[in-house]
Amino acid sequence: MSTSSNTALIDTLYTHFGKGEVPEVLAMMDPNIIWNEASSSTYSDGNPYTSPEAVLNGVFGRIMGDNEYFLLENIQLTTLGSDKVLAKLNYSGKLKSTGEAYITHVVHEWTIGDGKVKAFQQYIGLGKQ
Q1: Among 54, 70, 87, 102, which is disulfide-ready with 108 (CB 3.0 to 4.6 Å)?
Q2: Which pTM does this prediction carry?
Q3: CATH number of the structural domain spanning residue 115
């Protein structure tokens, strides 16, 4: 795939996720995907997730269970080389357990091969302590 096709793939993935079309997101993943949540993330306990089903159960399902709402906002995509796309974005959500609303700044590094997502790495910026 060309670099513009890789960027379009990730843009489409975010569009599907934003619409709640999780099966479409999972279909865009390689069966042997290597998915890593940021080490500071609650969901990093299963790193690396090594299949779309593992990502569904270990990450997506838990996010939806933990939040009243969860949105991806202000997505900016940048091509990195021939097989990587970098996404800078915000998560906004509201925790069910506390009712606390939040906004988190994150970076996603996507690796693409043969028209599928081969790898994902999340980076989270920590706020003031």
Answers
A1: 87
A2: 0.93
A3: 3.10.450.50
